[in-house]
């Protein structure tokens, strides 16, 4: 007896590597409703009821007369197995199982689990041939019974109808004494369910992966396919022990697997190390007959993996390309004008042109040119346009370059997109939103903002009650103004504080009815007709012109559309004025500098405005980071933190995607995960890249029980009796039977096999060879009968020498 026979192929993934493996569905044992299969219920962790067997099945020294087909990839004897997280073999508690892929299957989301037992002669003959091929020591093996269970396009717990799916099959074979099992793997794209105990992710990977093999249930005897309960089980369709990637075959009747698996004390693998070229040695675990199997890396074969497979023998390179054979791979050296792994694609000028940063290639007159996205330039759109190079900011403004844009940080008193507007004069309409501008002197003015507006130039807000002021936070009749940071209270005379809660101490120095601002005794809000730091200047009604001296040393200025004198009120020449900076007018940590009777604020980083009350524009406000990147500001610049698979200053450059080259053919769906990709093939297609086209008979095109024959480039249907058409879709109809003279026909159908009976009219009788007409397979009725006239004179009815004359239905 032999346990694990032949060799296995393990395939490395890579864009330029040929990938073999998987058993096409056409090479599965036939399955599905068309074969009369039953199906398990659509139930998580469910399965079939106990299925009685017509022939006892030997397994580990015992004959079993029933079994369970479990949704989670197992056939079990003695009891149902609903556990979804695979327990490492060996296990006891009567867990006698054959497991092709023990994992958390959920056929409610996708897929079906089919099963049947068969004693049909074609199935038995195929099973006998398979066992004779894989076990030459049993050349006369003749199968008497076969059980076929197929998990078709099933997904995992936590998945959906769009999640990856697996297709695999268990075949049990016996002649009543010897028994065998075959595992077929067509597509394995997930390994683990998403239940917390399994730990799989949204792609069905990671955690405690699936287990494949068989277990005696005594806690001692078992066998695991290499890679079980690890991520490597995802490649089980690339491995084998019989020389056919995706197929494993075992003898399982007489329980010759050693106790505890394979003993290291007599290990052939450890002693001889027979496998070459990176092949993995597997103990065959046969008591009294130590042997081994080499699981070869892709590109090698032979009992000891000593034969290098020449991948160029199949001439994979097209269009005159040169094939270069390598270890487990080949590469094609393409002639000019062609590209692709097999040089199968004819290049256009844009094929070799890489346009960066979202640029689009356009072919013109045999050459390629890049059409760049806004904000980029260069022959390959490789250079980001620096919008600050043209120095767009005026009046000393500082330009900050953004993606396809720029922003200007303006010095006081300039504003605007390019710092083009000077806010130092009422003539420039410095007060925004049609608010009142009060001119003080050249270079100085004050804007009076109506409720709802705020800022030095009433540039913020709108004519409504700001949302931040709805709660009326300002106390003691203070006025509330909304700001970018929330709100600001303008307090009534005598009060100060953030919410005007604090009462000012005595000592305000404002004159002529002026009131101190924000608790200071040196910054005054003057009543109409008075100006100055302490409201010490009065606008009189004395007319003047620019050449006229006003009384008391006053000076002439424009006011209210005319020229009037502005005079000192009651301060002497020796009065010492307070410093404009005493009131600490600079906000947000700004430093105050005195200039004559005025001041300027030196603002810290991130703020601007006369009183440093305005935050500088946020560089991240334009959302420069693409593809889900996160924008962060630091030291006057912005930086993009890019998500996985993107890089570049603005996360605009995509990292290589193993699925981007479209490796999956014939409508297959590509799923990528770290270091690998998998193709989920459309029904009927197989192969690593879904390159194996199904037989045209795969979809069962022939109807009404017809037999489908694969003709290589097409198919033909052999119709059963009574059906015609390309797909045997039309039932044969003979139509109404033809009339027979002197007879009436009766029939109840015109289909194949129907009968038409005839009854002759009075005076006629059916001919000697009359039979009912039958509708034949070709769609025609059999020959009609004849009605012969009855000779009434034949009985010599006339007496005493009378002469008889025959008439229809009478005589004379």
Automatic annotation (TrEMBL):
Residues 100-255 form the NIDO domain. Residues 732-789 form the Sushi domain. The keyword Oxidoreductase does not apply. SUPFAM superfamilies: Complement control module/SCR domain, EGF/Laminin, Growth factor receptor domain. It is found in: Secreted, Extracellular space, Extracellular matrix. Disulfide bonds join 296-305, 334-343, 372-381, 410-419, 449-458, 491-500, 526-535, 603-612, 642-651, 681-690, 719-728, 760-787. Residues 1-19 form the signal peptide. CDD domains: CCP, EGF_CA. Its main location: secreted. This is SNED1 protein.
């Amino acid at each position: 007896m032999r346990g694990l026979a032949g060799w296995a192929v393990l395939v490395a993934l890579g864009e330029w590597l040929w990938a073999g493996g998987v058993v096409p569905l056409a090479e599965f044992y036939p399955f599905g409703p068309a074969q009369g299969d039953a199906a398990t219920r659509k139930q998580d962790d469910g399965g079939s009821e106990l299925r009685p067997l017509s022939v006892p099945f030997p397994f580990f020294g015992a004959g079993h007369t029933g079994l369970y087909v479990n949704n989670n990839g197992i056939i079990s004897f003695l009891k149902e197995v609903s556990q979804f997280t695979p327990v490492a073999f060996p296990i006891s508690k009567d867990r006698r199982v054959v497991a092709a892929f023990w994992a958390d299957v959920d056929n409610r989301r996708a897929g079906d689990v089919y099963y049947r037992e068969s004693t049909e002669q074609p199935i038995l003959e195929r099973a006998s041939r398979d066992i004779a091929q894989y076990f030459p020591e049993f050349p006369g093996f003749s199968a008497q019974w076969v059980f076929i269970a197929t998990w078709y396009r099933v997904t995992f717990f936590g998945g959906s109808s769009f999640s990856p799916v697996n297709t695999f099959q268990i075949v049990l074979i016996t002649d009543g004494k010897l028994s065998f099992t075959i595992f077929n793997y067509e597509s394995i794209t997930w390994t683990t369910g998403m239940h917390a105990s399994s730990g799989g992710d949204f792609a069905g990977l990671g955690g405690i992966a699936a287990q494949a093999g068989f277990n005696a249930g005594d806690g001692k005897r078992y066998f695991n396919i290499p890679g079980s309960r690890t991520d490597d089980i995802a490649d089980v369709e690339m491995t084998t022990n019989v020389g056919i990637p995706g197929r494993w075959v075992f003898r399982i009747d007489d329980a010759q697997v050693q106790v505890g698996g394979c003993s290291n004390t007599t290990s052939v693998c450890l002693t001889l190390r027979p496998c070459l070229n990176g092949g993995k040695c597997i103990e065959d675990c046969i008591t009294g007959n130590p042997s081994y199997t080499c699981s070869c890396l892709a590109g090698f074969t032979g009992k000891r993996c000593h034969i290098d497979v020449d991948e160029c023998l199949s001439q994979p390179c097209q269009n005159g390309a040169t094939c270069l054979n390598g270890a487990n791979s080949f590469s094609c050296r393409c002639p000019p004008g062609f590209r692709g792994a097999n040089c199968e694609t004819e290049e256009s000028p844009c094929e070799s042109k890489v346009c960066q940063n979202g640029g689009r290639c356009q072919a013109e007159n045999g050459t390629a040119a890049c059409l760049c996205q806004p904000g980029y330039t260069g022959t390959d759109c490789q250079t980001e346009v620096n919008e600050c190079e043209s120095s767009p900011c005026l009046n000393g403004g500082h330009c900050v370059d953004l993606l396809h844009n720029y922003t200007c940080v303006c010095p006081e008193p300039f504003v605007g997109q390019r710092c083009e507007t000077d806010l130092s004069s009422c003539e420039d309409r410095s007060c925004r939103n049609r608010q009142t501008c009060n001119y003080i002197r050249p270079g100085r003015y004050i804007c009076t903002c109506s409720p709802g507006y705020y800022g030095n130039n009433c540039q913020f807000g709108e004519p409504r009650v700001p949302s931040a002021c709805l709660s009326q936070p300002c106390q003691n009749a203070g006025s509330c103004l909304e700001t970018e940071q929330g709100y600001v209270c303008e307090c009534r005379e005598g009060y100060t504080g953030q919410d005007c809660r604090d009462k000012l101490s005595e000592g305000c120095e404002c004159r002529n009815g002026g009131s101190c601002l924000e608790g200071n005794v040196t910054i005054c809000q003057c009543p109409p007709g008075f100006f100055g730091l302490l409201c010490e200047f009065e606008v009189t009604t004395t007319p003047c012109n620019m050449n006229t001296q006003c009384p008391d040393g006053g000076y002439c200025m424009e006011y209210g559309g005319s020229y009037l004198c502005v005079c000192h009120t009651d301060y002497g020449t020796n009065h010492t004025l307070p410093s404009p900076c005493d009131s600490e007018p600079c906000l947000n940590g700004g430093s105050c500098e005195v200039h004559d009777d005025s001041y300027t604020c030196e603002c810290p980083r991130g703020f601007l405005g006369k009183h440093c009350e305005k935050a500088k524009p946020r560089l991240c406000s334009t959302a420069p980071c693409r593809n889900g990147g996160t924008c962060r500001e630091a030291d006057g610049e912005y930086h993009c933190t890019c998500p996985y698979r993107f890089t570049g200053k603005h996360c605009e450059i995509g990292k290589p995607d193993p699925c981007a080259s479209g490796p999956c053919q014939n409508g297959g769906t590509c799923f990528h995960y770290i270091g690998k990709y998998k193709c989920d093939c459309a029904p009927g297609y197989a192969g690593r890249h879904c390159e194996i086209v199904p037989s045209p008979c795969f979809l069962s095109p022939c109807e009404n029980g017809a037999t489908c024959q694969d003709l290589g480039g097409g198919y033909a249907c052999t119709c059963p009796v009574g059906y015609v058409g390309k797909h045997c879709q039309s039932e044969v109809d003979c139509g109404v039977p033809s009339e027979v003279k002197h007879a009436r026909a009766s029939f109840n159908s015109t289909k194949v096999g129907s009968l038409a009976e005839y009854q002759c009219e009075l005076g006629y009788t059916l001919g000697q060879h009359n039979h009912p007409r039958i509708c034949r397979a070709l769609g025609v009725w059999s020959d009609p009968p004849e009605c012969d006239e009855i000779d009434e004179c034949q009985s010599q009815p006339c007496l005493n020498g009378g002469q008889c004359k025959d008439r229809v239905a009478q005589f004379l």
